[in-house]
Amino acid sequence: MLAAPFPGRVCFRGCCDESPRVNRTPTFRIESRTGKPRARPARLLAPVMSALLLATPPLWAADGRAAAPAADPVGDYLAAIERSEAQSGSYATELVDLYHGMGQTLLEQGEFEEARDAFYRAAMIARVNSGPLSLEQTNYLYSIADVESRMGRPEAAVQALEHIYQLNARHFGEESAAMLPVAQRIHAWYSDRLTWEGVPVRPSDFQNLSYLMARIARLTEASYGLGDVRTAMGYRALGQSHFEAIRHMVLTGETPQPGLVMDSVDEVDWVPSQHALVGHVMQGEDALERAIQSWQENPAGSDLEVAEAVAQLGDWNLALEFSRSAAHNYEEAYRLLAGSPEFGFLADDYLGKPSPLRLMNNVADFVRDLDPPDAESSLAISMTVTPDGRLHDLQMVTAPAGVTADHWQKFRDNLATVLFRPAVVAGEVQTLENFVWKTSVRLTVPAPPPEPATDSASPSSASPAPGPTPGRPPGAPPGLGKGR
Predict the structure, then answer these.
(1) Residue boundaries of the structural domains of the chain
(2) pLDDT tens for each residue of 320-363
(3) Helix, strand or coil for residue 296?
(4) Considering only 55-69, 86-100, 184-198, 294-308, which range has the smallest mean pLDDT?
(5) Which long-range contacts (CB under 8 A, 24 or more apart) does 370-377 make?
(6) What is the rounded CA–CA span in Å between residue 235 and residue 288?
(7) Looking at the DSSP assignment, which residues form a beta bridge with residue 425?
(8) Residue 285: what pLDDT?
(9) What pairing do the DSSP bridges indicate for beta strands 420-421 and 423-425?
(10) What are phi and psi of 231, to 5 degrees?
(11) Helix or strand holding residue 302 (H, E)
(12) 129-175, pLDDT tens digit by residue?
């Protein structure tokens, strides 16, 4: 039974006692960022503010003009709360929006503790009026998750989100189609949270995104059927979630903490990091295979879409260094296209030419093989592409004006971090030598004109558009596949 906003914890200064008490008025000590008290308890503040507003004469500036009083939205909220409580009691329905609005204002001002108290009070009043399992408290629980996360209390934020999910699951049924927008909204909250400044990104964030995306994919399939394009895209997005989790774990060496993972209950022993990593690999592969099945079941799906889904599974395997599995996927995609009456002519053009591995939309902006490239910014590079996606023997063939030897070296360094989808020649993945790849480059600062009486181009502060950090190709855990 969910008798409190969060199972097993006291949520807000006695709010879990559901019996209304008229005399339970919250006491806020709201201070400015300088630490100076800004407002007193709600019941004491309103009469003072009313007296000031009604009795104080206008203040006049030195030049004779009236000086507008400083805005105090929090004080206004407290005055409105005092009036509402005096008229309708401490659990008046209008208090929910007043406390929530005051909490949002405090949150914007960086007063996190006071904002947290206001949000909990809003949620508690909603529960008293609508019931402990009411859905009306959902928005206030999201606000609680916001402020708890910003305060560095991720476990409390996860509890708020889990409570939102449990409330809706009790109301609709966990497998109901009505749970789809619920899971999507919680997923959107987590995705947005990754962009917040000053809030650390944790492995549990990616773990929770994968958990929620798995729910979204399964609910989408249950709602629309396996052969629907939304189902295919859902499983594709699930693969992306697992890929991001793998990449973060490999880059940081961290593993999710059980208390910060949704649906982890009270597990004492958490899986070792290597097991967690392997779990993401297996589940991500399963998701991409399910996407292939979805396209195959789709009556409106084309051979090209099925072949691309198979090739994307090859991209996944190649990035994880399962090169033999990747070759099998690419060759299967080639056969699907070659045998298609409608798209057979694309087999050699689509899979016969190497291209940057756009695994999970994870290719830097500087890697763009535009078709056709802008003639004024086209850079042509001769290279050898091996079956494992590596680039060798890089040589610049043509370049736009202003590209110096220094530019070229930086671009080569960037390309060292990129895997290419290998060429499929006559149905087999092969090494392709002297392949010329064309892309468009943009110099961030125009190169200065060459100085007279010198044989070499002047150095420039220009550089190619930024690429990924040198090191491993994007998202490729070192030694994970070892050529499987």
Answers:
(1) 1-60+68-172
(2) 999 999 999 999 999 999 999 999 988 998 899 998 887 655 44
(3) helix
(4) 55-69
(5) 370/439, 370/440, 372/438, 373/438, 373/439, 373/440, 374/440, 376/400, 377/440, 377/441, 377/442
(6) 6
(7) 428
(8) 95
(9) unpaired
(10) -70, -45
(11) none
(12) 999 999 999 999 999 999 999 998 989 999 999 999 999 999 999 99
Please state whether the predicted TM-score (pTM) of the whole model is above 0.90: no
What's the CATH fold of domain 1-60+68-172? Answer: 1.25.40
DSSP secondary structure string, 115-174?
A: HHHHHHHHHHHHHHHH-TT-GGGHHHHHHHHHHHHHTT-HHHHHHHHHHHHHHHHHHH-T
Kindly give, in sequence order, each residue whose CB lies less than 8 Å from that of residue 267, ignoring residues fewer than 6 positions away: 258
d(CA 38, CA 303): 67
**Residue 116 to residue 278: CA distance in whole angstroms:** 38
Query: What does the pLDDT read at residue 118?
Result: 95
Find the helix or strand (DSSP H, E) in which 217 lies.
helix 203-224
Distance CA 208, CA 165 (A): 13
CB 165 within 8 A of CB 182: yes
Give mean pLDDT, residues 220-241: 95
Task: Give yes or no for a contact between 83 and 46, defined as CB atoms under 8 angstroms apart.
Answer: yes
Amino acid making up residue 436: V
Which tokens hold the place of 135? 């859905």
> Confidence class of residue 36 from pLDDT cuts 50, 70 and 90?
very low
DSSP state of 352: S
- Identify the H or E element spanning 54: helix 42-55
Can you tell me whether residue 384 is helix, strand or coil? strand
Q: How many CB atoms lie within 10 A of CB 311?
A: 22
Question: Residue 446 pLDDT > 50, yes or no?
Answer: no
